[in-house]
Amino acid sequence: MLQKLAVVVLVVASFACVLSCGKTGNHFLYATIPATNQIAVFREDPYSGVLTQLSESPYNVGSGPQSAALHPSGKYLYVSNAGQGENDISLFDINSDGTITEVTPRTATGTLPFLLAMDPGGAFLYCANVLSNSLSVFSISSSGSLTPLGNSPFTINLSPKNMQISPSGKFLFISAPSQVTGLVATFSLTAGVPAFVSLTSTADNDPSGLAVSPNGSYLYTANSTANSVSIYSIGSSGALTPVTGSPLSANFQHPVAVTVDPKGAYLYVADQGTSQGTTGGSSNIASFSISSSTGFPAAVTDSPFASESESSFVVLDPTGPYLFVGNQASNAGVQAFGVSAGSLNTIASYSVGNTPSSIVILQ
Length: 363
Description:
Elements: H1 2-8, H2 12-15, E1 27-33, E2 38-44, E3 51-53, E4 59-60, E5 65-70, E6 76-81, E7 88-94, E8 100-108, E9 113-118, E10 124-129, E11 134-140, E12 146-148, E13 154-155, E14 162-165, E15 171-176, E16 183-190, E17 193-201, E18 207-212, E19 218-223, E20 228-234, E21 240-242, E22 255-260, E23 266-271, E24 284-290, E25 297-299, E26 305-306, E27 311-316, E28 322-327, E29 333-340, E30 343-351, E31 358-362
Antiparallel strand pairs: 1-2, 1-31, 2-3, 2-4, 5-6, 6-7, 7-8, 9-10, 10-11, 11-12, 11-13, 14-15, 15-16, 16-17, 18-19, 19-20, 20-21, 22-23, 23-24, 24-25, 24-26, 27-28, 28-29, 29-30
């Protein structure tokens, strides 16, 4: 069950890394740890990718923190708490040294708020509620406080697995499992309000990770059961169309997360290397160069790259050449890689004691 929870929130890795204002020198990495109801905070050296845990870390948060989102101003951190009887969002003020202070009271959501996403302008926060099949939407004040929009939470008739907002802020994509075929739902966003656009069947009944290219032209889906990655072009209405050659099969074994680098040149896939619920496989991160004209990925020469056991999500530092992987099983923690032209070199692994469910990077 813990593995499934970590996979659910992998989405966080792509949509929550944002550029902040007023921060210089070090970057900061925040990891949610559901088992201990905590947030681990690390200082990231922007010149080496090395992490150092802050002396004040870890911080207590609500029960079962699953997903984190950063405000573009760099002032606020939001965490969804999906523990039994919790079902709310914590707001933290971020201090100049990366430390955080919770602002209470917490904001109520629907049942099991596993996923958070924020529009690029920082005006609205979206929370996908897995058990209530709903989407809570909040406006964000200048102080970071949340106010639910009228009619929120919105019923979406899906049990969300992952969630991504397009770089333009016009579209919201949600992946969801199905007994017959997996689905990706597209919603248009107007003044924060979601409106259903289309429902696209995927190559898998259990689509996991989602990633949108920086130019907003392509959507990538990790198909964890079908062992493939689907590639869709995004139309002007937000509707999805498979590109020629999709889905991509590259000897995947349970791919669960995808992310695209800030320039849209490379795609990274967390491949657990095992069938879900089994152990003993070899996890890795597969790396692909992306065609600028078609959006289709081609494997980097020395890909894949070995990772710690049961990698569950991947996050790129938006301005630094570093990639961070959340791992479960016996080596639960965060693994850091240096990135060069799509190739990865291991920097170090950092234990957080229990399985991390999401990480976000502030710079």
